[in-house]
Amino acid sequence: MHTADAVTLDRVADATRLAIEMHVATHGIAEATEETVRKTTIALGGHAVAEAEQNHLARNTQHELYVHGLLNAGGGRAWFQEPPDIRFDYDGEQIGAAAKRIWSPDQLRRRLGEGAGQIEAAGIRGIIALNVETYLAGLQPTANDDLLAKGSRFEEAIERLRGHGPYLAGKKHILGVLALGTAVGWAVGKHVEVAASVYTWLWLIGDTDEDSRLAQAWFANWRGRLDAWMSENY
Predict the structure, then answer these.
(1) Bridge partners of residue 179, in order along the sequence
(2) Which residue, 150, 165, 227, 232, is most buried by CB atoms nearer than 10 A?
(3) Half-sphere exposure of 6 (CA within 13 A, CB side)
(4) Which ranges constitute the DSSP H helices of 44-146?
(5) Model pLDDT for residues 179-203, shown as the tens digit of each residue
(6) Angle at which helices 3-27 and 34-43 pack, to 10 degrees?
(7) Can you say how many angstroms the Cα of residue 181 is from the centroid of all Cα atoms in its chain?
């Protein structure tokens, strides 16, 4: 493939992710607030290709908006509040979500630590909502992919995340890591066919059995409602 064509396809991939994630961010919520409008303005001010950015504020804000939209689309009530970044209600309890994005594998431990610190500072239980797209470059989904196969490839791609289990197990208040990513692939023939796969995966970290039960129950409830919302909107 010609270098110029590769650059164009990178732009298409980033535009596809932006379209999907901003659709969730803007349509998954009941109504826009001043804060969502402010953050949306920041998110849309980034470079066309993420790797060309010197400052990742726009893409990091995009991830926050996406997490906020996903939590609301899943039938809950979520709002922006620091620390950590976002809070939501579940079963009468206020739970935090620290939205973190990894830009290289070397950042993983630092980003997990930052998220854990934000949740601890909030004094409530919470999840680290982690964008893991840096691990998904080789997935190249197609329109005909089997769902189970796609899931297995995703878990293989983020396997190194599990290596940080002992580190996170020593952190208080952490219910789990919600790994999120949108992989984009294409087939180049007479026309360019673009396919995207949206991934959500929960890794339980709970300090106690009660923590794990809460996280599992929340994820099952949220994921079921989110799947229904996705089916109606895509």
Answers:
(1) 130, 201
(2) 150
(3) 3
(4) 57-73, 108-122
(5) 999 988 877 777 777 888 899 999 9
(6) 180
(7) 5
